[in-house]
Amino acid sequence: MFTVYPSAERFSFDRGWLQGSHSFSFSEYQDPNNVSFGPLRVFNDDVIAPSRGFGAHPHSDMEIVSIILEGQLRHEDNLGNVAVSSFGGVQRMSAGTGVVHTEHNASDETHCNLLQLWFEPEARGLKPSYMSSSYNPASLNGQLLPIVSRQGGENQATIHQDMTIYLSRLEKGQEIKFVQHPDRRTYVFVIQGSLTMNQEHLLSKHDAVRIEQETHLQMTAEEPVFFLLIDLP
């Protein structure tokens, strides 16, 4: 089953210093029929103005992943972690029993664009932790590159949930296949460009599709495309 969510149907906002869209019920956008997809609870696409950001605020019992698309994101928390990430960088925070952090655009000249995803952890009350990782953007070409997974690995962030986040770039006409277990879910989001799922469902920039009970997925680039795929329980 494929359920397509066009970009125009997401909740979008503009606060001046922060522009973005929410794919799930979050903050001022409240929709009891669109709360989560499996353990995926938040999928935000944010653009932060130069030298602006989120002041100190708490989190608990949530796995928070930030994928930087443009600019520089600075993270600091009460665990003593400080990091600045740019394109190719990923930040993962396990809030566990509680953590306080800030997020800011590290540049005073250019904006910062990131995807921020929140996942329910596999267990509550975990010890809070943080890590940053990076991948080679050239490695995205023509394949699904894992950047976050439960087991971790080279150039991957680990996460306390049975899931994997992949990124990929395809040239026009290229296709890639993904084999999924029938009891698992798949989430696909187009960052740039457009692709067709299983020769039937067209996804353009910032469209998403939530997939259940499908074992064979085929993604074909209608034009050069940059997209994200999440394998979820």
Overall SS class: mainly beta
Main sheet?
7 strands, mixed
Tell me the fraction of residues in β-strands, as a range.
Answer: over 45%
N-to-C CA distance:
15 Å
Instruction: Give the H and E element order.
Output: EEEEEEEEEEEEEEEEEEEEEE
Main traits of this protein?
233 residues; mainly beta; globular; seven-stranded mixed sheet
What does the secondary structure layout of this molecule look like, with pairings?
Elements: E1 2-5, E2 11-14, E3 18-22, E4 40-48, E5 53-59, E6 63-70, E7 73-77, E8 82-85, E9 89-94, E10 99-105, E11 112-119, E12 129-134, E13 145-149, E14 157-158, E15 164-170, E16 175-179, E17 185-192, E18 195-197, E19 201-203, E20 208-212, E21 216-221, E22 225-232
Parallel strand pairs: 13-14
Antiparallel strand pairs: 1-20, 2-3, 3-4, 4-11, 5-10, 6-9, 6-11, 7-8, 7-10, 9-12, 13-15, 15-22, 16-21, 17-20, 17-22, 18-19, 18-21
Describe the protein's architecture and organization.
There is one protein chain. The protein has 233 residues and is mainly beta. It contains no helices and 22 strands. Strand 7 and strand 8 form a beta hairpin. It is globular.
Task: Offer a concise description of the structure.
This protein is 0% helix and 54% strand. By secondary structure, the chain is an all-beta fold.
